[in-house]
Design goal:
Length: 229
């Protein structure tokens, strides 16, 4: 039995801006996404979260304008996963780039950077636990996150592009739901979760992933770089 996962989601075609909030929550200062210190503000906050925080100011990411465009994302194999792209966004720039490309994981026009990172860490933990053969723990953490972050999933019957048949398709109500279902598909589809021997990125290999089960590197670039080293 197979099924696909699909979502129609929105992003702002005008990009993302950061907003800083003082501890009392009163003052909000817009930071220009292209300004020189935006990346370092996010990086500082990232650092504060990873080491015990004394957070002076809270950083929000917000859509730059009210313009929105929708896009459809469909998963019927295990190639090109959003969840691995998300958990591999290690620095502030790549995290901002992710939300610029795909929108915020949860509904709304803004997200607190803490929430963005907490969600990322949670999803990463599930995949790493699965990678470490802690499947019971991975399933338990998946259950907790699914309860927190997925409010609704609707079934649909769709005709995938280039086919005549019908495909059972699960449609979650948020991008974070979509990514969690991607993770579930990896863990139930016989694929392996691997850590790149060169750059440390998480990737999947084995059935339906387009990668051999024995792959050690996330990409050709990393394979070549490792051989040169
Ligand atoms: Zn790599």
């Amino acid at each position: 039995m197979t099924y696909a996962i699909s979502i129609e989601w929105e992003r702002c075609q005008d990009g993302i801006v950061g907003r800083e909030e003082s501890p009392d929550g009163a003052e909000r200062v817009a930071l220009d996404r292209d300004g020189p210190d935006f990346g370092s503000k996010v990086a500082n906050q990232l650092h504060e979260i990873l080491s015990p925080p004394i957070v002076e100011a809270k950083l929000w990411l917000q859509y730059r304008t009210e313009r929105r465009e929708t896009y459809v994302r469909r998963l019927d194999g295990l190639k090109n996963l959003l969840v691995t792209e998300y958990v591999n966004a290690k620095d502030s720039e790549s995290l901002i780039e992710f939300v610029r490309k795909y929108g915020f994981p949860a509904p709304g026009d803004a997200i607190h950077i803490d929430d963005l990172i907490e969600l990322q860490v949670g999803m990463r933990n599930i995949l790493v636990e699965y990678n470490n053969s802690s499947t019971f723990q991975a399933a338990a953490d998946f259950r907790t996150m699914a309860a927190q972050h997925i409010a609704d999933i609707k079934p649909d019957l769709v005709t995938p592009p280039g086919t005549n048949g019908l495909s059972l398709t699960l449609v979650p109500d948020s991008l974070q739901g979509f990514m969690l279902l991607e993770a579930a598909s990896v863990m139930t589809g016989g694929a392996l979760v691997m850590k790149c021997a060169h750059c440390g990125a998480i990737f999947v290999s084995g059935s339906h992933t387009g990668r051999r089960k024995t792959a050690h590197y996330c990409s050709n670039r990393c394979r070549v770089a490792a051989q040169r080293a």
